[in-house]
Automatic annotation (TrEMBL):
Keywords: Cell outer membrane, Membrane, Signal. This is LPS-assembly protein LptD. The gene is lptD. It is found in: Cell outer membrane. Belongs to the LptD family. Together with LptE, is involved in the assembly of lipopolysaccharide (LPS) at the surface of the outer membrane. Component of the lipopolysaccharide transport and assembly complex. Interacts with LptE and LptA. Its main location: membrane. Residues 302-671 form the LptD C-terminal domain. Pfam families: LptD. The lineage of its organism: Bacteria, Pseudomonadati, Pseudomonadota, Betaproteobacteria, Burkholderiales.
Amino acid sequence: MSCLRWLLPPSTSPRWAYALTAIVTVSSVPGYAQSLPGKTRAPRVENKAAVTVIQAEDITGRPEREITLNRDAELVKDQTRVKADTACYKQVEDEVQAEGNVRIWRFGDYFTGDALQLNMDTGQGYMLNPTYRLEANHAQGKAERINFLNEDEALVLNGTYSTCQSANPDWYLRSNTLNLDSGRDVGTAGKTIIYFKDVPILGTPALSFSLSGARRSGWLSPMPGFGSKGAAELTVPYYLNIAPNRDLTLYPKIIPRRGFQLGANGRYLGETDGGLYQGETYLEFLPHDKQYIPATPGGSSDRWSVRSHHTQELSSDWSYGWQVRAASDNNYPNDFSKTVSSSTERQLLRELRTDYHGDFWTLTARVQKYQVLQDPESVVDPSLFVSRPYDRLPAINFHAAQYDVAGGFDWAMDSELTRFYHPTLLRGTRMVAIPQLSYPIIGASYFITPKASVNLARYDLDANDATGSKAEQLSRSVPTLSVDAGLVFERPLQLGGKEVTQTLEPRLFYVNTPYRDQSRFPTFDTDAATFNFSQIFSENRFVGSDRIGDANQLTAALVSRFLNEAGAEALRLAFGQRFYFRDQRVQLNSSTPVVDARSDMLLAATGRIAETWGFDSAVQYSPSQSRVVSESYTVQWLPGQKKVLNLGYRYLRNSFKNIDVSSQWPIFQRWYGVGRVSYSMQDKKVLESLIGLEYNSDCWVFRMGAQRFVTTSTKASTPIFFQLELNGLSHLGVGSPLEAMKNSIPGYQRLNEGYGR
């Protein structure tokens, strides 16, 4: 077999592709493939002692020296298999030379070419005019030559690479050198141009990516976009795969109107002798914002934000953690928010806590402090003012409970010691203890639970010069008796042609709490509870420990469930109302008692009566005023993959009246439409909207659209986005359309599920 010499010709890549890269990325940098299906590849293990098996229609040569194989030649050694028209096997060197329709299988990878030279022991050799297909990610390509450096590593010369499965891939990269190292799970390319539909769209002098979808360090795709106020910006993230359980992403961002911002997001997960720990921290810093005017003369124009959380088990019964949110100024959410949730967040919590528990008790200690970011419009509209919650410096809570003791009794004890601090309001320390005892009586179709508890509290209040109040001590003791009872009836039923079980569950809940004057007590953390199905079965109509509502009341409810053959709930109907036998004298900030004889009625229906239909509804109706107080309805239709339609309506008297429509739906062939509209019927304006289009090819996805959401009471942001995602390589475009679609449309399904970091 002749020995061939291969010369590498110079690349002829178009210069304009590199110019485009310079515009998009500012500077040429290596890339990082952040997406591939999460397929686990078995480790490559070669048996060096394995024998080489050969076969062909015609075999000649010298035994134990050199063997020539003609017509359908085949050589197999452990995980390597070679087939060709003709081959020459040198037994001493354990080397094969093959020509004509050459094919190689190595650990699931497949290569074809015109000629081959390969050492079966070391895995070194080369192939001419090859094509290849990799098992880990179904990638394919062709080249002028492949040099096999060892069993794991191959060097592709003047070749292509793509994860598209067709013979003519929609996208591919062409590189003068492409090193595919399966052992290190990395592909490294030299001077590279990325083609889409045979049009060069991006060029770079270096590129690296993962071959199996595993995380690895490198530059992510450039992210052009628009800020919350429509200002252009460019982010070029860099990903650091520090360890399998730790990573760090840096987000250098150029905002022409403001300056240079640097963001960093670190994540970690691990285990010590004490137990598991995990956390994440995100930082943003923009020095000397060119557009920001400090609230106070001479103030800093540096802008920053931090979000951090951490949890860790110190032992099997002891843990601690923190949560930190902070920003440099009130306007930070308005100027830098990219989502609805972050733009409306105004009370930033900072908390450090620890928990210790025994067999039947738990002790929690924490400190909490808040930073409040005021809406800029609150200066002219006082209704927009955001109140500052009390800091807890510290709060210590103790809970203990045991069940079925002393002949069937349940007992529990909840207590707390909290120091409340506020820069302008009354301060003090509150101590609360709530012992309770109950005796559940449970049968096959009934239950009855009498319970007795007492709320013991003491307040040590500080003198406050601003309010003119003096230091004083207050205490109270409020007992409560309650009885919770219910029945469960069942019957078989036909529903929609299917056998179901219907239940009928009447329930009564009686509470008696005597009146105690609490008008002198402060309200550190207490408010009236939202009236709903969970609240009407609680003893106290307030949330928090500063008010214990007097009560002589009975809650009546009726629930009916429809259970399918597997026991899953297909439909639930519920009705509830509370009846008062005396006036409610304890109020938050008023001495005027509530004299209603009965509460509003609550009605609810929820379920999934078919595989494709789900709904949820709740209505609060006032019989005394003969009108609806609040109502909400949501319907979801999921007729198939990538098909969802959500309809919603929410109403609260004298507050809001909103409708919400969102959907993901195939339009034609591979095109999908996505959209959402949240509209205020009361204010006659759009609160939030999203419209977009997606195209799903076999190996790439294109997304485009725009979103609008409120950043302040009078201002809104309307970012636009478009993105081309090349499955198995990266994504290019402006904005973050995938994040916007997932957060805005319940039931949204990613078109290329399984790709993406």
